[in-house]
Amino acid sequence: MFSAAGGGKAFQVYTVAERSESVVSQGFLRVIPEYTITNCPRPDIIVVPGGGAAGVLQSPSMVTWLLDVAQTAEIVLSVCTGSLVLANTGLLDGLEATTWYGAVARLRQAAPNTIVHENRRYVDNGKIVTSAGVSAGIDAALHIVWRLCGPEVAAETARYMEYCYHPEASPA
């Protein structure tokens, strides 16, 4: 969604990893990061994906980087079980959140100071936005496009992606 917003001009989208070697996502998809945590531009929006996100928590340098850039980022968005990363770094303390339905109990355990919502597509706390599963991440991303670029750009982006977008029906 972010790469399509505003005709591809609204956001500069890039991938970041601890090292420049490819990262395997979901056990089969290889992603070659454009930047490492030592040379990436300071992000305005951080997207923390789910899936094999536990690897982030096993890396002290990734956790340190995330906490550092989250301080100055305008928005931190987690998709699916990426919320567990935010919980384990303390970024969800005192907030409301959601996650993929299969990880709700784990999120409640990891974030005892967080109100965890089931059956919510996304939860917007202002700076921190969490979404449920992958398709709910699309809703959350469109919500962020709407917040930052306006309803017209969000609607145009959804149309370009041929995504059935009903912002009035999305629980925030």
Q: Please, what is the CATH homologous superfamily? A: Class I glutamine amidotransferase (GATase) domain
Main sheet specs = 4 strands, mixed
Counting DSSP H or I runs of 4 or more residues, the number of helices is 7
What order do the helices and strands follow? Answer: HEEEEEHHEHEHEEEHH
Physical arrangement of strands within the biggest beta sheet: 5-6-10-9
The third-level CATH topology is Rossmann fold
Gross CATH architecture: 3-Layer(aba) Sandwich
* Integer tally of domains: 1
- Helix vs. strand class: alpha/beta
Low-confidence stretches: none
Amount of beta strand:
15-25%
Residue-averaged pLDDT: 92
E-strand count: 10
The coarse overall form would be globular
Rg: 15 Å
The CATH class is Alpha Beta
The residue fraction in helices comes out at 25-40%
- End-to-end separation in angstroms reads 18 Å
Task: Please provide a written account of the structure.
The chain has 172 residues and is α/β, with parallel strands linked by helices. The protein has a single domain, classed as Rossmann fold (3-Layer(aba) Sandwich). Helix content is 36%, strand content 18%. It has helices at residues 5-8, 54-57, 60-72, 82-89, 104-110, 134-149, 151-160; strands spanning 16-17, 23-25, 29-31, 35-36, 45-48, 75-78, 96-98, 115-117, 122-124, 128-131. Strands 5-6-10-9 form a 4-stranded mixed sheet, with helices on both faces. The protein starts with a helix and ends in a 12-residue tail after the last helix. The model has no long low-confidence stretch (mean pLDDT 92).
